[in-house]
Amino acid sequence: MSGNKLIINSALRAASHLRSDVLPKEASKVAAAMLSSAPSGGKHTLPDLMYDYNALEPVISTETMTIHHSKHHNTYVTNLNVALEKLDTAVNQGDASGIIALESALKFNGGGHLNHSLFWDNLCPKGYSELKDGPLKEEIEISFGGVENMKQDLSAMTIGVQGSGWGWIGYNPKNGGIECATRANQDPLEATTGLIPLLGIDVWEHAYYVDYRNVRPDYVNAIWDVINWDAVEQRLVDATKKIE
Asked: pTM of the entire structure?
């Protein structure tokens, strides 16, 4: 952001400037939601990892982790902050056209930040990846008939993503089950499908090309060895609490 300008009390400011007689209702709603999502300090930041860059070897190399986290994810964060500053300006000016024009950048970079933040938490060193008995394993049994069936279903769908995108296991609040889904590019799962993300697999080539070249199936099949199942289960527990 330029100078010392921060998006502070952004929800309040958005509410005062998003006048229904100036801006379309939907544009006002989206802009207010995006501005109010900004952290209290005004900027989104690159999250620290809970492990070292070399902790996921040999499944994911130090080089891939370094580039993926410090370069690619950081770029989404930087561009999201730029887009939010532009949105803040457009809102203050009652510029409906400017707000609408920012939709793509906000979705892409906001989704990239959300998706990657969850992705890092999905992962852990190989020796700590264990799916224990508990609510997640029980739900997998109910929804897929077994853990291996779930892995096969999600792997097949994820490998089949055309171009760049993500494979997901999501919680469906409408029926209380979990299911597989894929999204293109950086489209965030919950905002575009209503499914609450539990586990995501990044199949943009920058996530695996250094280690697996263009052989996506090898990467997807290997990543199961470094899934942090405790984190995935906690997301399921949190998701079910939301609808109780």
From this structure: 0.86
